[in-house]
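ok new one. same drill as before - C-alpha cells go in, u give me an amino acid for every spot. 127 of them this time. try not to just spam alanines like last time pls lmao
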C-alpha cells in the first residue's frame, strides 16, 4: 500500500534494500557497531553479538524473488521488506552528572524531542 501510495517501484525498493544491507555489512566489518551489547536468548548458550538480519545481495538476485503479499502485482519481497524481528534495541538515558558518577562517557545528548503519529489503520508502518 505504501509503495503504491508514494509511487515507489519494485526496482527502487530492491536497490534501497541492497544498499541498506551492504552498508550495514560494511559498518559491521569496520567495527562501527562496537557499542552492540551481547544478548543471551533463552535456550541458547551463545550470545547474539551482531545483527543477524544483514543479507548482502545484488539487485539482480533480489529482483528474482516473488512478491510476498499481493502475488499478482505486489512489490514487497523477502529481500526488500524489513526483517521480521527488526527493531530490537535499548538505550540508557540519564543525566550527564549521573553518567560521570558511574564513570560513563555520554555518546549523545538529548536536546529536544517531539511526538508524531498517524492513524495506523490507513498507513501502517509509516509513522
Amino acid at each position: 500500500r505504501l509503495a503504491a501510495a508514494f509511487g515507489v517501484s519494485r526496482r527502487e525498493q530492491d536497490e534501497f534494500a541492497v544498499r541498506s544491507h551492504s552498508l550495514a555489512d560494511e559498518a559491521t566489518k569496520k567495527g562501527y557497531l562496537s557499542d552492540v551489547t551481547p544478548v543471551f536468548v533463552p535456550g541458547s548458550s551463545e550470545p547474539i553479538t551482531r545483527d543477524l538480519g544483514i543479507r548482502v545481495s545484488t539487485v539482480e538476485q533480489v529482483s528474482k524473488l516473488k512478491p510476498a503479499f499481493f502475488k499478482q502485482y505486489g512489490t514487497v519481497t523477502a529481500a526488500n521488506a524489513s526483517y521480521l524481528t527488526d527493531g530490537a534495541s535499548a538505550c540508557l538515558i540519564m543525566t550527564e552528572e549521573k553518567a560521570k558518577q558511574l564513570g560513563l562517557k555520554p555518546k549523545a545528548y538529548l536536546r529536544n524531542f517531539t511526538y508524531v503519529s498517524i492513524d495506523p489503520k490507513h498507513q501502517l508502518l509509516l509513522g
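The two ends are 14 Å apart (CA to CA). and btw The chain has a mean pLDDT of 87.
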